[in-house]
Amino acid sequence: MSSGVTAARSRDLRRGVVRDALGIAVASGAYAISFGAISTAAGLSLLQTCALSVLMFTGASQFALVGVVGAGGGVWAGAVAAVLLGSRNALYGLRLSSLLDVVGWRRIAAAQLVIDETTAMAIARDDPRLSRFAFWSTGLALFTLWNTGTLIGALAAHVVSNPKTFGLDAAPPAAFLALLAPRLRAREPLAVAIAAAVVAIAVLPFVPAGVPLLIVACLVAAYGALR
Amino acid sequence: MIWTGILAASLACYGLKLAGLSLPQRWLTDVRVQKIVPLIPIALLASLVATQTFSTGRHLVLDVRAAALAVAIVAVLLRAPFLVVVAAGAATAALLRLI
Q1: Nearest-angstrom CA–CA distance, A42 and A219
Q2: How far apart are CA B96 and CA B99, in angstroms?
Q3: How many structural domains are present in chain A?
Q4: What is the Cα–Cα distance from B85 to A35, expressed in whole angstroms?
Q5: DSSP readout, A202-219?
Q6: How much is the pLDDT for B57?
Q7: N or C: which end of chain B has fewer CB within 10 A?
Q8: A145 found inside a domain
């Protein structure tokens, strides 16, 4: 009897996880459509845009790379910004490694799915088995819809001859803002964000494109280490 | 050229994810790592918002993108979903160019 109750409860919990995972994946798919469109407007080919979603698979980094390229900053400046933004995934991986307990090829596959959403879903569960289930179901659903959304966005933007007509050049800042907003719930992050924006604008006329981001990254690292 | 950048950045991003899963746990308790890493996306995203709104190449400019950002900020304050924020920004720029 009690084992039956436990099994039923565990099934309910898993069902809840799948529902949440699908919700997150659908929202991300919509967000991927804007990525596909922005990337195409920035001048990347269909294949390059889709390759980014398959191989990089971390939203903020992808937006940063195509955003910098679209603004004329060159692919290497964009690549450095993307990698810096991807550094937080290493911290997520550290947090997830004992929870997931994956070795061999499973770790190779799991690594690609270590992003904001899967980490949030996995660490929100009390039971390690449910954590693992949440990680994999969110990761696989998101990976599928993220890449589908990217393809749709890229194909849609290909039929637009001048991206500026649809305001697509104004889309990346709005996208970065939407990514930033949830991180600004306390006073210190807000102060860091404002200071970073001011520094980036202040140095921009005097250094090559992309370098303002590096200066800001160095300054914030120094601030983090010293405070 | 652009392919090399895409592949190198993707590989590095994957390497960071894999390193997280593979490094010893004591890295997680390292105070400097805990203090610095969460601040980096905040600072970089804020810099990207500012530079992509107020510049073209190395020139500071004030154009319809500033109005687009203002509308996007309002959308964020109203807790609009991601796609609505992006669409509101883009639509503002498109409409102002029509006028």
Answers
A1: 28
A2: 5
A3: 1
A4: 13
A5: HHGGGS-TTHHHHHHHHH
A6: 77
A7: C
A8: yes
DSSP H helical ranges for chain A: 2-41, 46-51, 59-70, 75-100, 104-112, 116-123, 128-158, 171-180, 187-203, 211-226
Name B59's bridge partners: B56
Residue A136 located in a structural domain:
yes
Cα(A136)–Cα(A123) distance, integer angstroms? 12
> Per-residue pLDDT tens for A40-57?
999 999 999 999 999 999
pTM of the model: 0.85
pLDDT bucket at A161, cuts 50 / 70 / 90: low
Which of A186, A177, A189 has its CA nearest to residue A223?
A: A189
Judge whether A144 lies within some domain.
Answer: yes
Q: What is the ipTM of this complex?
A: 0.89
Q: What is the dihedral of CA A83, A87, A90, A96, to 10 degrees?
A: -120
Average pLDDT taken over every residue of chain A: 90
Q: Does A26 touch chain B if contact means CB atoms closer than 8 Å? A: no
CB contact, 8 Å: A106 with chain B?
A: no
* Tokens describing residue B66: 């500033």
Cβ <8 Å between B55 and A88? no
The shortest C-alpha distance from A100 to chain B (Å) reads 9
- Is there a contact between A224 and B55 if contact means CB atoms under 8 Å apart? no
Q: Note the pLDDT of residue B35.
A: 81
Q: A156 at the B interface (CB within 8 A)?
A: no
- Using alpha carbons, select from B45, B42, B27 the residue that is nearest to residue A221: B42
Report residues of chain B scoring pLDDT below 50: none
- Provide the domain limits for residue A50: 2-184
Q: What is the CA radius of gyration of chain A?
A: 20
Helix ranges (DSSP H) in B1-99? 2-22, 26-29, 31-36, 39-54, 64-77, 82-98
CA proximity to B86, closest of A156, A31, A57: A31
